[in-house]
Amino acid sequence: SVGPVLPAGFAGLKVLLLNISRAVSRDVLITFSPTEGPRLPNMTEKGKTGKIKLPKEIFHSLGSWTARVVVTVLNIQQLGMFEEVNQTGQVLDDTVVGITVGETSIFRLQEPMKLTFTHRQLPYGITPQCVFWDPSKGMAGGWSSSGCFTQPRNNRTICSCNHLTFFTLLLNPALDESTAQALMAVATVGCGVATAFSIFTIAFCIFLRCRFRSEETLRINLGLHMNLVGSLLLLNLAFLLNNGTSGGTQPKTCKVLGGLTHYCLLCCFTWMALEGCHLYLLFVKVLGIYIHHYLMKLCLVGWGFPALIVGVAGVIGSYGEYSIQTMDHQVIARLC
């Protein structure tokens, strides 16, 4: 059932070509390594090389009697390929394995293709993830785990995928529960300190507005600052409330908390934009600018426009409980 074998390649790229009969009676096994590339298995390679297991159903469903199988092993550092923008994980041995069968795309396999990557014992805090290259992700493509299941072992990781394309094993820095709790504690303390200083700033602005009642321009400037600081105060309070109650809240309450947090965040952005527009009027359009009920109109935009966006997001069901999980789906934090 296996036809002529043709190994080929050059620096950074090694290829294996096989002709497989449609009447193949068992799964097709291929081994590979970053240095020697793909080849047919032999008895002396136990546990030393990676393995590819192509289920026989792939070939039974083809229209032609023989299918050309192309297996490529690429060194992406030498070739300068498969570079994802803002990639956090590291590609194991800079190795990508490409698998194609015939002239058509193979996907939605009932029995998954299994790809085994061999490696040393991974250090603490590193989680392997089976991924494939998705050209439609982002501007220039990126790694995706859709359709792939990761099974970590001591010195190997088994990837079970329901399609054929270019695969690799990403080594991601894992966020454990203790680190997540420490980060949440730091964020809580920071929000508490920011809340205290925001209250002090608002009180100081109120004092200045009362002290200089005859200075209309100064009162408008202070009013703008108070609204901006007020939105920051509400955002910090919303985060503290969200962090303190999201663990055991009802779904409706969690949606309200999520909408409130989103609203306060949008208010911060809106008031920052209004501050910029106000500075433009002060320093560029210096003369001849008067707007009746200027501060009131800014308040309608600063507090009303975010409410419109949050209302639309709430109608389409964007709010609810979200969890932060490790790669093995262990929940380490919950937020609304």
What does this structure look like?
InterPro entries: GAIN_B, GAIN_dom_sf, GPCR_2-like_7TM, GPCR_2_secretin-like, GPR1/GPR3/GPR5, GPS. With 336 residues, the chain is α+β, with helices and mostly antiparallel strands. The protein has helices at 57-60, 76-79, 177-211, 216-245, 251-283, 294-315, and strands at 6-10, 13-21, 28-33, 37-39, 50-54, 66-75, 90-91, 95-101, 113-118, 126-134, 142-144, 148-152, 156-161, 166-173, 322-325, 331-335. It contains 6 helices and 16 strands. The strands form 3 sheets. Strands 1, 2, 6, 7, 8, 10, 11 and 14 form an 8-stranded antiparallel beta sheet that branches. A 6-stranded antiparallel beta sheet has the order 4-3-5-9-13-12, with no helix packed on it. A two-stranded antiparallel sheet has the order 15-16.
Give the topology:
Layout (H helix, E strand, L loop, with lengths): L5 E5 L2 E9 L6 E6 L3 E3 L10 E5 L2 H4 L5 E10 H4 L10 E2 L3 E7 L11 E6 L7 E9 L7 E3 L3 E5 L3 E6 L4 E8 L3 H35 L4 H30 L5 H33 L10 H22 L6 E4 L5 E5 L1
Antiparallel strand pairs: 1-2, 2-6, 3-4, 3-5, 5-9, 6-8, 7-14, 8-14, 9-13, 10-11, 10-14, 12-13, 15-16
Helix pairs in contact: 3-4, 4-5, 4-6, 5-6
